[in-house]
Specification:
By secondary structure, this protein is of the alpha+beta class. It contains five helices and six strands. It has a six-stranded antiparallel sheet with strand order 1-2-6-5-4-3, with helices on one face. The longest helix is centred in the first third of the chain and has 19 residues, at 22-40.
Length: 157
């Protein structure tokens, strides 16, 4: 039995240096699970690439993206990341990092250009009748700035 009068308080510096950091550990586990599921499904999950270009994302779509014809949006960003402040830098990053199974197409929208990256993620169901498709929509403005959106949609085969 510990004598309460002789027990010493644990120094604050010890507590801070030995505290577990569940946030970083959870992030690493989530990334590993995401990559593992993508590998097992032979698919490229585009969300990590979206976060690379748009780290300050919010829910939904902006009116600008809707007006450009973006049909869906789980997340959007109007603020570029610190590594890619304009559309040209985003294109360079994607050319270097996106796998070959990701499709790219573009459409002129007035003074802007809508560029869409898509990847099919096969679902693991018995009939294999549906697929999950993920999209990154990038609207290049006339001044070479951009806004981006991310979306996933279930589609019939």
């Amino acid at each position: 039995m510990i004598n309460a009068s002789k027990a010493r308080a644990i120094p604050e510096s010890f507590l801070q240096s030995n505290m577990k950091r569940p946030t970083m550990r959870r992030l690493i586990y989530a990334i590993l699970l995401l990559l593992g599921s993508a590998v097992s499904a032979n698919a490229t999950v585009l969300f990590p690439y979206f976060v690379d270009i748009a780290p300050n994302y919010e829910d939904g779509l902006t009116e600008e993206l809707k007006a450009a014809g973006v049909p869906c949006g789980l997340y959007h960003s109007t603020k570029p990341g610190f590594l890619n402040s304009n559309f040209t830098e985003v294109e360079d990053l994607f050319k270097e990092t996106l796998p070959s199974d990701v499709e790219r197409f573009e459409q002129k929208r007035g003074n802007s250009m809508l560029v869409v990256y898509s990847s099919v993620n096969k679902k693991d169901d018995a009939l294999n009748t549906k697929t999950m498709k993920s999209y990154i929509y990038i609207l290049r403005r006339a001044d070479n700035s951009f806004v981006a959106a991310y979306c996933e949609q279930e589609e019939e085969l």
